[in-house]
From TrEMBL:
Full protein name: Protoporphyrinogen oxidase
Alphabetical list of Pfam families matching this protein: Amino_oxidase
Positions in coiled-coil regions: none
Domain Amine oxidase, chain residue ranges per copy: 10-406
Listed SUPFAM superfamilies: FAD/NAD(P)-binding domain
Any one GO MF annotation of this record: oxidoreductase activity
InterPro entries, per the entry: Amino_oxidase, FAD/NAD-bd_sf, Zeta_carotene_desat/Oxidored
Length: 413
C-alpha cells in the first residue's frame, strides 16, 4: 500500500513515521521540514533558532513522549518565564502578586475580577460559549474597563483585525488549559539547542519530496505529482487545498490568519529577565519575546529577540516587503532602547496560513480525520486536538490518530 502525506510539519512527520512501519509512505512539502517549527541557522555563531517562537507546557503529554522516544529527554528543560506589558514606553512586569498590585493601569477591583475570572475559567465548559463573541463575553462578565484596557490589546495582538470574530469559548479554554502559573511566572519548556533536533530526528528515514503537490483523484486511487497512491493524508492548511477537492471532501470554509515575525540577534536586550512583553499601545508588532531571557545567553552569544505580529493573507502587513518591514521593526525598537548599532542581524519570516481564526461557531468547523472522499484524510490545525489553540502537542496527537484511522481503514493492524 502507498500513502502520500501532504505537509512535513509535526502532524505530517508523525503520521509518516507511524504509517511507515506498515506502508510505503512519501511526504510532500512545499517549503521546509517542520512547517511552523522550522528553524533558521545562524552560521556565524553556529546555532539553530526557530523562525517563529516556540515553547511547550507540562501537560503536553504526546510531545514529551515523542521527545523521549527520539532520545532527546536530556535536552528538555523547564524554566519560569516572566511576562510583562509595555505602556507608553515603560515595561511593567506582571508575575508576582506584588507586581500585579503595583501595576497602575488597572483598578484594584478589576484586578480582583481578573483573578476570579482566571480561577472560574478552569471549572467551566467552554463549549457552552462557542457562539458567544469574545468581546461580548468579556464585556458582560468583566466590564468595559477590563475589556478596553487589558483584553483588547491582547486580542488585537493575537488576531489582528479579526479579533471581533473570535469566540469567547477560545478565551475560556485557553485560560483553562494553558495556564500553568507559579508564584514568579509561568513554567514553560524548551528543547535546549532548539526544536530543530526534534524535526531532524522525526524526519530520519522518511521519504520527503520538497515540492508543491497537486492532488487528483485517479479512479479508486490518487495521483500526486505523477505518482499513484492508495490514500492521501492532507496535513497542510485547508485554504491551500484545491477548492474542488475541498468541496468534494466536505471540508468547511475556515478563515486563517497569517504570522509575520521578526527574528533579531542583538548585542543588548530590552529587559533583564522578562521573556514575554505584550504591547498596550498600537505598534507594527503586538508582542516582544526575549528568547535569551528564557534560555541561556551563553547558548547563543547574543540576545535573541522575536517581534511577533499577526495579519491575514490579504492584509497589508503580510504583503509588505521584508526589506521595508525590517526597517519598520528596527525603528520601533528604538522606543525600547535598542538602536540599529546594537542589532547584529534581522530576518523577517512569514507564514501565510499560520492557524485558523477561532471564530464564533468554530467548534462546528473542526474536521474529522475521514472525509467524504474515500481514502482522503485530513489532520492538523483544524483537528480537534488543536483547539483551543494550535500547539506542537495537538499536532503530534493529530498525526498519531490519523495514522491509526488509515491503518484501521486499510486493515494494516
Amino acid at each position: 500500500m502507498r500513502v502520500a502525506v501532504i505537509g512535513a510539519g509535526l502532524t505530517g512527520l508523525t503520521c509518516a513515521r507511524l504509517l511507515g512501519e506498515y506502508a510505503d509512505v512519501k511526504v510532500f512539502e512545499s517549503e521546509s521540514a517542520g512547517g511552523l517549527l522550522s528553524s533558521y541557522y545562524n552560521s556565524e555563531r553556529g546555532y539553530w533558532i526557530e523562525k517563529f517562537y516556540h515553547h511547550c507546557f507540562r501537560n503536553d503529554e504526546h510531545l514529551i513522549e515523542l521527545i523521549r522516544d527520539l532520545r532527546l529527554s536530556g535536552k528538555l528543560v523547564w524554566r519560569i518565564a516572566r511576562t510583562g506589558v509595555a505602556v507608553d514606553g515603560r515595561i511593567y512586569p506582571l508575575n508576582t502578586p506584588f507586581e500585579i498590585l503595583r501595576y497602575p493601569y488597572m483598578r484594584l477591583m478589576d484586578k480582583v475580577r481578573l483573578a476570579r475570572f482566571t480561577l472560574r475559567a478552569k471549572k467551566r465548559n467552554f463549549i457552552d460559549f462557542d457562539d458567544v463573541g469574545v468581546v461580548e463575553g468579556i464585556r458582560d462578565e468583566l466590564g468595559d474597563e477590563l475589556l478596553n484596557d487589558f483584553f483588547l490589546p491582547l486580542l488585537k495582538s493575537k488576531f489582528g483585525e479579526n479579533y471581533e470574530r473570535v469566540s469567547y469559548a477560545w478565551l475560556l479554554a485557553r485560560v483553562s488549559i494553558r495556564s500553568n502559573r507559579r508564584y514568579s511566572g509561568e513554567e514553560l519548556g524548551y528543547l535546549k539547542g532548539g526544536f530543530q533536533q526534534l524535526v531532524e530526528r522525526l524526519a530520519e528515514g522518511v521519504d520527503i519530496a520538497f515540492s508543491k503537490a497537486a492532488i487528483a483523484k485517479a479512479g479508486e486511487k490518487f495521483a500526486v505529482m505523477g505518482e499513484r497512491f492508495d490514500a492521501v493524508v492532507y496535513t497542510a492548511p485547508l485554504p491551500a487545498l484545491d477548492r474542488e477537492l475541498r468541496r468534494a471532501a466536505g471540508l468547511p470554509e475556515t478563515k486563517y490568519q497569517s504570522s509575520v515575525c521578526a527574528l533579531i540577534g542583538a548585542e543588548e536586550g530590552i529587559t533583564e529577565d522578562i521573556y514575554w512583553i505584550n504591547l498596550k499601545n498600537p505598534s507594527i508588532f503586538g508582542a516582544i519575546i526575549e528568547h535569551t531571557n528564557f534560555m541561556d545567553f551563553e547558548d547563543y552569544g547574543e540576545h535573541v529577540i522575536y517581534l511577533a505580529s499577526y495579519s491575514t493573507p490579504e492584509g497589508q502587513l503580510f504583503n509588505t516587503s521584508n526589506d521595508k518591514l525590517e526597517k519598520l521593526y528596527m525603528k520601533e525598537l528604538e522606543r525600547f532602547g535598542i538602536g540599529s548599532e546594537s542589532i547584529n542581524w534581522i530576518r523577517v519570516f512569514k507564514a501565510r496560513f499560520s492557524g485558523p481564526i477561532y471564530e464564533k461557531g468554530y467548534l462546528r468547523k473542526i474536521t474529522d480525520y475521514r472525509t467524504r472522499v474515500k481514502g482522503f484524510y485530513v489532520a492538523g490545525m483544524t483537528s480537534r486536538h488543536n483547539y483551543p489553540e494550535r500547539s506542537m502537542n495537538g499536532s503530534i496527537r493529530s498525526g498519531i490518530e490519523v495514522a491509526k484511522v488509515v491503518m484501521e481503514d486499510f486493515g494494516l493492524v
